[in-house]
Amino acid sequence: SKAPGDMGWKPPFFTGGTAEQKSRRLAVELANGRLAMMAIIGMFFQDGLTGSAWGDWANYTDSPLRAFENELGVQAPVGYFDPLGMSNDGDAEVFYRRRCTEIKNGRVAMIAAMGYIVPEWYRFPGYCSPTDALKFSDIPNGLAALGKVPAGGLGQWVAFCGFLELYAAKQDQADPPGLLSGKDEGFGRVEFGRLGVFRGDRSKDDEAKKRGLNSELANGRLAMMAIIGMFFQDGLTGSAWGDWSNYTDSPLRAF
What integer pLDDT is reported at residue 140 of this predicted model? Predict the structure, then answer.
């Protein structure tokens, strides 16, 4: 039987050569073929959607992504980034919910990333738990802290987060994503101003506000990637700022 791809035709100038040269040529053919398959599908799509073989995005006026291309967070160099096509249906309500979630997760990730960094340089004086004679300086940095902080302390974290979610820092659907407020009862509606200051002033300059909100989204996205990386290196090496040499079980060590 013939080798895969052998059609019995020898292209000019490539009939001879050593076994090594033939192997290299076949590898090049496979690589170029894979690239060409991706390229031609991309050309078909851009031709079909824009009406031109080398189409201009401006010609694709029916794109559902145009509903969101002017939203906050659409930044150079990638523009509106949705590689999974989750917004292809153009559903504004779903986009609003996802944007609120993105902002919230980004804010938590920024705090978490700072929580990994600051204890390396500064810790509160005194006791975290006087009843357990546990000082702040006795608590290790990173994931190991979860095994050191008393259950009562962890419960306080959960209770505080629950208080914010249910009462003090809710997302009103009538407000822009990320603008949190308290309930209207009691002392009336409470909003958080710039940098999350309670009852703080909000920026009156529209351009400065837009720049600040874009920065928050960009920094939140970076922080989400950063904190996941910190968790992985902490879990694999046993240290918040782990040394690769400590990860002796890595399957990559075989190579």
Answer: 86
